[in-house]
Design a protein that fits this description.
The protein has helices at residues 10-27, 38-50, 75-81, 94-107, 119-122, 143-150, 169-174, 176-181, 222-225, and strands spanning 63-67, 86-91, 112-116, 132-138, 154-164, 184-193, 200-208. By secondary structure, the chain is of the alpha/beta class.
């Protein structure tokens, strides 16, 4: 991370250590992740989450929404490294929100809101609709579905960052119609590999060109069942 200009203080290292400990403890009671070994968590979850900052200037962003965050990736590692961020975490499973709320408290983080609900419903609320500088989702769904989940949260000229595994040209191509409908335009695509395990990662950066059309997002469950094509 230092090679990318990111330094981590002793306090931040302590927060990451606590994060790993709590993740492993809670994972014994509920399914948060299939990865609990320390080095793997640090690389495949923490480093992978922070990698977004290699391609997006997080220092210039004030707010970030993480849609379908699961165990807090990528938003919590980003918040630890960039404490100025105001973060909203959205997840449809209340048990995960309970874990995330406890995690935020134990890490001593401020300006983090953990919200239980469906993205399609929450994006209809004025406090969330067209509001966030950066919206992200990590390994949640295919891009044509993610666009409808996430772009309604992005402010005009803000950024939706879709964090994926290996590159899929087909997935990007099939998302063209949803981008047009939801006022998004692909600004850049970035590929890299994790430093030790060498797994491929792909980040698609999408600019929100205008406010979300009134008919989107459609009612909960529809984007998965009937993607925009």
């Amino acid at each position: 991370m230092e090679e990318k200009g990111i330094t981590v203080s002793p306090r931040q290292l302590e927060q990451f250590d606590t994060y790993h400990r709590l993740l492993a403890e809670w994972n014994e009671r509920m399914n948060l992740t299939g990865i609990t070994e320390r080095d793997a968590v640090y690389e495949k979850h923490f480093y992978d989450s922070i990698s977004l900052s290699f391609f997006v200037n997080i220092n210039e962003a004030g707010s970030l929404a993480d849609i379908g965050s699961g165990a807090g990736f990528p938003s919590i590692p980003l918040k630890i490294c960039f404490p100025h961020l105001k973060v909203v975490i959205v997840d449809s499973l209340n048990k995960r929100i309970q874990f995330l709320s406890h995690l935020v408290e134990q890490l001593g983080l401020t300006d983090v809101e953990c919200v239980h609900g469906r993205a399609e419903d929450l994006a209809r609320l004025p406090k969330h609709r067209d509001q966030y500088d950066i919206v992200t989702a990590r390994a949640v769904a295919r891009l044509n579905v993610l666009n409808e989940f996430c772009l309604p949260f992005v402010r005009k000229h803000g950024t939706f960052a879709a964090m994926k595994g290996s590159q899929s040209g087909e997935e990007v191509r099939e998302a063209a119609a949803s981008l047009r409908e939801l006022k998004g335009k692909i600004r850049a695509e970035h590929d890299f590999k994790l430093p030790y395990e060498q797994s491929e990662r792909h980040i698609v950066l999408i600019e929100k060109r205008d406010s979300t059309p009134k008919k989107y997002p459609r009612k909960a469950g529809t984007p998965i069942k009937q993607p925009i094509i």
